[in-house]
């Protein structure tokens, strides 16, 4: 019987990893002990957070609805603590399978962002590995497909044989730093390690109900910004959006990512990009989002110097983080290993589905509390 430790389960990918683990136990008629590390909040215990933030009616995939309550009770054990300060029970044993997802996703380039990323994603993660390094059999560490930094052309799974990195922000730089640290720790302590790197994550495209996500960030944030602006200023006029006209963004559904992370448990490879074979053209992304927001746009290849008031606000806030990605050089991810791992699952077609994926979030105002639940029959 496997003993598993998961961090970051209250996050989008982490919650879906837990859903997949429970479904795996059910579909294979297996048993496991699953420890989830969650920090308490001022008014909420770790266990309550698991119920309130992960196992909500709006988020739970239909495939686990019939049995998840019993499985939660039987197999899932909450450890209350921080990744740099927790006690792993003695009966967890010394053959842990660890999925480490807890991290800060801050794409800003401010000094404050640097300190946050350095502390949460590096210092605290280092402390986490001090706690588990002698008790781990297999580690899947979730990084990002963008830890390679800005690059043109084909991107393979192997990031570590190169020495030249052009990072867009501290988040990317520290993810790479942690990747190298973890592989070193794994080597020194003789456990197997796979670094799993999802690209930009969207709502579900495989499991029902489709399109749902626990967070609507990154490209969704552009729509949220303009939806709010349009509401208060219906006559805001044309907005100039800067992008690489030939560029694209690799957007991958969260359920596809979770399945890839679980299957990474059984491979020897140290690096795995969880990406789709094809990017979605950046033009298509921006046009779909702003058309839904009812905003007239002009696509430009340079950030405007004579910005309108709304453009100034956009480029100072959301744009300051995302423009580096909308103007990225043309690239594609090889995605060969992940397709071998998930060969039995049809690769989602994000280009064909993107409008539906975005429109769903837009229609619920980026808040799962607005999802209309089907009545129990």
Secondary structure layout plus pairing:
Blueprint (H helix, E strand, L loop, with lengths): L1 E6 L4 H17 L3 E7 L7 H9 L13 H8 E5 L15 E5 L10 H22 L3 E7 L10 E3 L14 H19 L3 E7 L1 E3 L16 H14 L6 E4 L5 E2 L1 E3 H10 L7 E4 L5 E2 H12 L3 E4 L8 H8 L1 H9 L4 E3 L2 H6 L8 H14 L14
Parallel strand pairs: 1-2, 1-4, 2-3, 4-5, 5-7, 6-15, 7-12, 8-11, 9-14
Antiparallel strand pairs: 10-13
What does this structure look like?
By secondary structure, the chain is α/β, with parallel strands linked by helices. It folds into 2 domains: 227 residues, Rossmann fold; 102 residues, no CATH class. It is built from 12 helices and 15 strands. The chain has a 7-stranded parallel β-sheet with strand order 3-2-1-4-5-7-12, sandwiched between helices. The protein has a two-stranded parallel sheet with strand order 6-15. The chain is globular and about 65 Å long. Pfam families: NAD_binding_4 (PF07993). This is NAD-dependent epimerase/dehydratase family protein.
CATH secondary-structure class of the largest domain: Alpha Beta
Low-confidence stretches: none
CATH architecture of the largest domain: 3-Layer(aba) Sandwich
Which percent bin holds the helix content? 25-40%
Strand order of the largest sheet: 3-2-1-4-5-7-12
For the record, the count of structural domains works out to: 2
How would you describe this structure in keywords?
seven-stranded parallel β-sheet; Rossmann fold; 2 domains; two-stranded parallel sheet; globular; alpha/beta; 15 strands; 377 residues
